């Protein structure tokens, strides 16, 4: 399992997240950070800005395959290992929809990027995915998706979520969806935004 | 319009896509009402095949249970997704998951395949399907899994077994 923590708030949140992970499952945990976070292995990020580029380079920086990624402001209330099981069974990626759907799809993304994304996808009625919790394996399709995700993020350089949708549209992967319990629910709670405060 | 004039807002136009070559609609029963619904959105020339479903009679097939109200204006977009994906299917719900539907026996059978029922299911009343080996494998697996239980759970089992390139569409594709 990998988390990313840059900045004081993110380190504090990641430490709390790691503690819950340790209580919920026996997965090895690494944190990509400036310095070591307690109870986790340390991974250095050579990219700047480290947020979000550490996450967008997980295919390269994660020591695990498959990898389970959690945002620093998540808390494992139960084992999130089922996400990994789907990937181990052959899916490239396991992820959950975002709580922002319908008229609120990409509502937190700037208008220019949001409209550009809808144009790229050819449609406004798309499923918004929440990239704060996901599992993946380092398959050729997934490596292509990560490369495209980085390229799409570089267009605007702000949010990574719309960039993921654009990248996914052009680079399909075998995707298994989990429900809200795995991101903002009974398995993984998500204290959105706390890592930035 | 005052907001637009003040550049505090802008009018967002419709995103339009054209129907790709080789596209068509598969329904159980053709009807004048269906043709009217297609014509209303300029799709009167879309070929229609009536017969037992599931079926993939076209290179890009829309399978539609016309008892469900679909947003016909999105059909072109759905077909365009098939340039890269094998299937595109709306989700049934974001909150009602596999663990919440079907009989207990059906859920146990599904859990044995997908391992964890805290997963959304697809709304199989509307499907965009590319005619290729993996989509045909999904349809075959779905047929084998359909034995009187919940068709959505049967489809979920088929998807897990075949692992196609399936794009989840929002619940809003069906009214």
Outline the structure in words:
- The complex is a heterodimer of chains A (197) and B (175).
- With 197 residues, chain A is of the alpha/beta class.
- Chain A has one domain (2-196): Spore Coat Polysaccharide Biosynthesis Protein SpsA, Chain A (Alpha-Beta Complex).
- In chain A, 38% of the residues lie in helices and 19% in strands.
- Chain A is built from seven helices and nine strands, in the order E-H-E-E-H-H-E-E-H-E-H-E-H-H-E-E.
- Chain A has a four-stranded mixed sheet with strand order 4-7-6-8. Chain A has a three-stranded parallel sheet with strand order 1-2-3, with helices on both faces. In chain A, strands 5-9 form a two-stranded antiparallel ribbon.
- In chain A, helix 1 (8-24) links the parallel strand 1 (2-5) and strand 2.
- In chain A, helix 5 (111-121) packs parallel to helix 7 and helix 6 packs across helix 7.
- With 175 residues, chain B is α/β, with parallel strands linked by helices.
- Helices cover 32% and strands 15% of the residues of chain B.
- Chain B has helices at residues 2-5, 32-40, 75-81, 104-114, 133-145, 151-162; strands at residues 23-27, 48-50, 60-64, 87-90, 126-130, 166-169.
- In chain B, helix 2 (32-40) links the parallel strand 1 and strand 2.
- In chain B, helix 4 packs parallel to helix 6 (151-162).
- Chain A binds chain B through residues 82, 85-86, 89-91, 97, 99, 101-102, 105, 115, 118-119, 122-127, 169-170, 172-182, 187, and chain B through 12, 15, 17, 71, 74, 77, 80-81, 84-85, 91, 94-95, 97, 114-116, 118-120, 160, 163-173.
């Amino acid at each position: 399992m990998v988390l990313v923590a840059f900045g004081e708030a993110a380190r504090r949140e990641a430490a709390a997240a790691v503690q819950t992970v340790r209580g919920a499952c026996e997965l090895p945990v690494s944190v990509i950070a400036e310095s070591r976070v307690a109870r986790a292995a340390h991974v250095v990020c050579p990219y700047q800005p480290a947020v979000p580029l550490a996450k967008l380079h997980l295919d390269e920086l994660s020591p695990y395959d498959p990898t389970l990624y959690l945002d620093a402001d998540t808390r494992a209330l139960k084992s999130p290992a089922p996400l990994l099981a789907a990937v181990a069974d052959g899916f490239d990626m396991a992820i959950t929809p975002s709580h922002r759907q319908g008229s609120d799809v990409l509502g937190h993304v700037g208008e220019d990027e949001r409209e550009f994304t809808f144009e790229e996808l050819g449609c406004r009625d798309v499923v918004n995915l929440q990239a704060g919790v996901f599992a993946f394996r380092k398959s050729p399709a997934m490596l292509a998706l990560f490369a495209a995700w980085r390229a799409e993020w570089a267009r605007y350089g702000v949010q990574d979520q719309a960039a993921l949708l654009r990248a996914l549209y052009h680079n399909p992967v075998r995707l298994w969806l989990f429900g809200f319990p795995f991101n903002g629910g009974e398995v993984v709670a998500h204290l959105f935004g706390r890592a930035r405060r | 319009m005052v907001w637009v004039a003040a550049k505090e807002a802008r009018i967002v136009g419709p995103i339009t896509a054209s129907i790709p070559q080789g596209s068509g609609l598969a329904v159980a029963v053709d009807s004048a009402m269906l043709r009217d619904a297609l014509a209303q959105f300029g799709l009167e020339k879309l070929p229609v095949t009536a017969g037992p479903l599931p079926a993939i009679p076209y290179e890009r097939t829309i399978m539609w249970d016309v008892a469900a109200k679909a947003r016909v204006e999105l059909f072109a977009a759905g077909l365009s997704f098939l340039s890269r994906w094998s299937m595109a299917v709306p989700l049934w719900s974001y909150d009602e998951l596999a663990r919440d539907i079907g009989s207990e026996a059906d859920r146990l059978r599904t859990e044995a395949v997908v391992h964890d029922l805290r997963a959304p299911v697809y709304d199989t009343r509307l499907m965009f399907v590319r005619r290729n080996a993996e989509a045909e494998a999904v349809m075959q697996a779905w047929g084998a899994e359909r034995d009187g239980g919940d068709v959505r759970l049967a489809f979920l089992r088929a998807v897990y077994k075949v692992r196609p390139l399936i794009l989840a569409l929002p619940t809003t594709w069906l009214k």
